[in-house]
Amino acid sequence: MALVQRTDFELTLAEYFRGRLQEFGRELAPPPHEDTLWYMGNMLARFGDSDELFTYEQGERGIRPLALLYRDAVETPSEWERCQLLRKLGDTALFIGAVFPENYARKGIVRDYFVGMGGGAYDYLGDNARQYRHVFAELAAKFSRMLELVARACARQRAYDAADVINLYQRWRNSGDPRLAAELHALGISLPDSDLRH
To answer: Model pTM?
Structure first.
């Protein structure tokens, strides 16, 4: 039986995300370290498996709140377990803060919350993790930029019709999300200075 050879079109999910992260990362000055892009690509692929993101608690499926992950990390006596929990906290904050910011903004959870929780978790790991300390240190120091990078890497690639553009604009007006503003700019839509939100 002949072995099936992999073609250029057969990418793993991690390779796909790493390619997108590298593409958009080149636009940053300085660009993220290659190891950091590799880590984030694997993280995004890992969250492609819903069991990695969602938990079952009290008979319901959901994303464990970041504050509870933090509490678990603080309360555990095991340094190894603390690092595992903080890694889960940092990764989850980076992922949901980049991919689902509007869902959380409607609940009153703003970007700074993700930056504080995720950046703080990665900062601890930068000093205490057994491996990838330089990756965690970069993620902590540049968490806000990494949120934008992950958001761009995960953005849908498709053509917009007029209804999509209007919906996108309305979502931006309601949230002020810089990721949505970037999508509008990429479509050639100029946003009035009075409408820009910071």
So the answer is: 0.75
